[in-house]
Write a structure and sequence with these properties.
It holds the Pfam family Ribosomal_S9. One of its GO terms (biological process) is translation. Keywords: Ribonucleoprotein, Ribosomal protein. Belongs to the universal ribosomal protein uS9 family. This is Small ribosomal subunit protein uS9. The protein has one domain: Ribosomal Protein S5, domain 2, CATH 3.30.230. The longest helix is centred in the C-terminal third of the chain and has 23 residues. The radius of gyration is 13 Å and the shape is globular. With about 120 residues, the chain is of the alpha+beta class. Strands 1-2-5-3-4 form a five-stranded mixed sheet. Helix content is about 40%, strand content about 25%.
């Protein structure tokens, strides 16, 4: 059948992250590199927050590839984590079911709404 995939954007200030999420086996890469290779190391935990909050098993059935450009390192981190979160929500909405999607969305928003909603401050 056709490839099940979704594309979403994450933004922070001038940084833009584009995430493609498709059926897979839990691979998450940013600009072709694993999360643990993304700078700055001190903010890597921010990238892992969606996985820690939702549990690895929710990501186990998908591959997420993120491209990020613009902005500084810190803004990029926030754009990436938003793109990862939004990608999973969008994928579940389209290919899994509404209840699972709502569950994921609620967990993320309760913890930190900027995981799904762009921060209105430009700078």
């Amino acid at each position: 059948g056709p490839l099940q995939s979704v594309q979403v954007f994450g933004r922070k200030k001038t940084a833009t992250a584009v995430a493609h999420c498709k059926r897979g086996n839990g691979l998450i890469k940013v600009n072709g590199r694993p999360l643990e290779m993304i700078e700055p190391v001190t903010l890597q935990y921010k990238l892992l927050e969606p996985l820690l909050l939702l549990g690895k098993e929710r990501f186990a059935g998908v591959d997420i590839r993120v491209r990020v450009k613009g902005g500084g390192h810190v803004a990029q981190i926030y754009a990436i984590r938003q793109a990862i979160s939004k990608a999973l929500v969008a994928y579940y909405q389209k290919y899994v079911d509404e209840a699972s999607k709502k569950e994921i969305k609620d967990i993320l928003i309760q913890y930190d709404r900027t995981l799904l909603v762009a921060d209105p401050r430009r700078c």
